[in-house]
Amino acid sequence: MATLLAREDLHTSVSDPASASMNFLNEVSARFPDAVSLAAGRPHDGFHTTDDLDRYLRSYLTHLEGLGLDAEQRQRQLLQYGRTNGHLGALIARMLRLDEGIEVPERAVMVTTGAQEAMVIALRGLCAGPGDVVLAVEPCYVGFTGAARLLGIEVVPVPETADGLDPETVLAVARAVRAGGRRPRALYLVPNFANPSGVSMPVAARRRLLDVAAEADLLLLEDDPYGLFGLDDEPRPTLKALDTDQRVVYLGSFAKSCFPGARIGFLVADQVVMDGQGGRALLAEELSTVKSLLTVNTSPIAQALVGGFLVESGCSLRTAVTGKIRFYRRNLRTLLAALEHSFADEPRVRWNAPDGGFFAVVDVPLTADESLLEISGRDYGVLWTPMSFFHGGDGGRRALRLSCSALEPEQIEEGVRRLARLVRERAEPSDPGLAAAPADRGAPAATTVAG
What is the pTM assigned to this prediction? Predict the structure, then answer.
């Protein structure tokens, strides 16, 4: 007789609804393949072809030859197990210096299997005891909160405002955690065009947050997958570029700038770790033990593909992705214009106007849950992401996230038209809170009004 397992005997991450949200969206997309998906936050398919793979590999092999590696050494580097922290440290360190003004040694860089692995490694390495917790912006990217659940680490939410995290709120939450007998180890946030909210922190708030991190003895886990894709060329310094006290662990990814199929991310951790005998090492080096037990090392072939991409760009992603920047700017502007056009006569619908990135948040006069998403895909041919997926409690129940990255402009416009029909036909008639006069209606949670 086949072995039968009880689901309640499995780890909570197997059945937890929040942890399962990514799979749920994939399943819904598979069931309604003809629906316009304003849910997918993936890059556009049209920027690369499989023909690029051979070119990037050859570019990287030429680079290795220029470093003095002979044919046997080049072959071994791509086809054998490799260094735990990867081979791209020097190229990534140069990229960070050129594009972001971040100065770190190459040994402070760990190449990971996507930024998701970098989150798991940072969480596991930093949270050592049962009283250690992490703070995180709310609404929060489900990959981070899911990673924490997988590791059994408590996440304490810090509510986001229309201008991103408020440093004083961070300080208050950190103090409350300590007063309760627990130790806040780190704060996770996306300062540039956050997922899911799309909001960005002003530079002054970023500087203040670094002061707060020192005062509260916090590390900052800065995730920056969208920083290149602003609507303008205004400088938005990363927290790591402003960091003079090694308070920031920087999490990066090549999924949006290169392509996600390579599954290459990285972690920059230049904090000094001292052992009991006075020996010193960088945090990235110490965390290599954690990585070695997860994936042994990141695929050298995948690293070579990204390495070739970096070599061809002179290690400047800003130079390499100018076409992508133009495309994503056009798409975000198209999304915001479509919302304005389709909901101009509906005062109960509100949305924010991010300065870049892939996402916008829309408040709607109905419960935007999984059941409505099923109806939306089946009867209206449009998909979106419930904002409740990004909240630990009951937040986001009447809001949804729209993504504009994977579509052509005409698809975005059609998707918003379908969404408008869904809202008009399914809106709940009696909703005094949302029926206030337009001039007095305020902004959606953690966002600003547009339209």
Answer: 0.93
The per-residue pLDDT for 235 is 85
User: Which two tokens mark 28?
Assistant: 């819904």
- The answer to whether residues 241 and 102 touch, using CB atoms and an 8 Å cutoff, is yes
Q: Which residues of 127-165 are buried (b: 16+ CB within 10 A; e: fewer)?
A: beeeebbbbbbbbbbbbbbbbbbbeebebbbbebbeebb
Domains of the chain: 10-39+322-440 (3.90.1150.10), 52-317 (3.40.640.10)
217-261 confidence digits (pLDDT tens): 999 999 999 999 999 998 899 999 999 999 999 999 999 999 999
Tens-place pLDDT, residues 392-440 = 888 999 999 999 999 999 999 999 999 999 999 999 885 444 443 333 3
What tokens does 418 get? Answer: 């379908």
Q: How far apart are CA 333 and CA 53, in angstroms?
A: 31
Give residue 11's pLDDT. Answer: 85
Cβ atoms of 366 and 398 closer than 8 Å: yes
C-alpha triplet 370, 375, 378: angle, nearest 5°: 120
Bond into 429 cis (ω within 30): no
For the purposes of burial, counting CB atoms within 10 Å of the CB of 346, is it exposed (0-12), middle (13-18) or buried (19 or more)? middle
Secondary structure element (H or E) that encloses residue 304, with its range: helix 300-312
